[in-house]
Prior knowledge:
This protein is an all-beta fold. About 5% of the residues lie in helices and about 45% in strands. The chain has one helix at about 10-15; strands at about 5, 25-35, 75-85, 90-100, 105, 110-115, 120-125, 130-140, 145, 155, 170-175, 180, 185-190, 195-200, 205, 215-220, 225-230, 230-235, 245-250, 255-260, 275-280, 280-285, 285-290, 300. It is elongated and about 70 Å long.
Amino acid sequence: xxxxxxxxxxxxxxxxxxxxxxxxxxxxxxxxxxxxxxxxxxxxxxxxxxxxxxxxxxxxxxxxxxxxxxxxxxxxxxxxxxxxxxxxxxxxxxxxxxxxxxxxxxxxxxxxxxxxxxxxxxxxxxxxxxxxxxxxxxxxxxxxxxxxxxxxxxxxxxxxxxxxxxxxxxxxxxxxxxxxxxxxxxxxxxxxxxxxxxxxxxxxxxxxxxxxxxxxxxxxxxxxxxxxxxxxxxxxxxxxxxxxxxxxxxxxxxxxxxxxxxxxxxxxxxxxxxxxxxxxxxxxxxxxxxxxxxxxxxxxxxx
Length: 303
């Protein structure tokens, strides 16, 4: 949701232009009407499976929603400005990346700043004769996305992205009560093995972030053996081709399917919820077997 912030022209121009005698463009600071909030995250309940590391525990992978920011976290800002000049409607845009170093935020754009309370402001040059000045602003939290280095105004995967179904949150609400929103669910595939490629084959009932729809998605496990896919289902996945197909395979288990949604066991991924597929492999008397996430034997467990 974008936030509309109409600003009286006199208030905008007073600080930077009051002493100027001619009607010329001058630089003024525009409050964007939006503030940084606590880091959004998906939350998994403790499943009690601490023996293989894939169950609970409050790690960054399954922290409470609204956790503190950590060094290296980034937020993308798109600020859009409108005004009227000589009876014509004008506009301008700023795209910036805000980066947290563990104690303070910095902006990739020299004209974007934050005050001590997290309120975002932008400095731009605008003619003193401009009227009906307004701004809209939206914040994106997407750890594996960045502003496209070519266009500068679209979100694209980072060079080190580990999933092709990336996480995406937007900040909505008001400056006083901001709230992060996502249309995605999170599917965490735990293998216990780093650098394994997980392949998800899904039909059109599976909906990742806009612009990232595909028939096949891949994710590489991190140092803890977790791979992540972000996307919700528009209807239950029941194995019916092509819309309801949903299967997961692993690069270290060629020819074997780790999970398949079926009509007897349909899969629904609800936006805002986190799911765990515990696909770790354990040795039992020399026999290799899958260890699933639920003691009841369900392959996929809502956390």
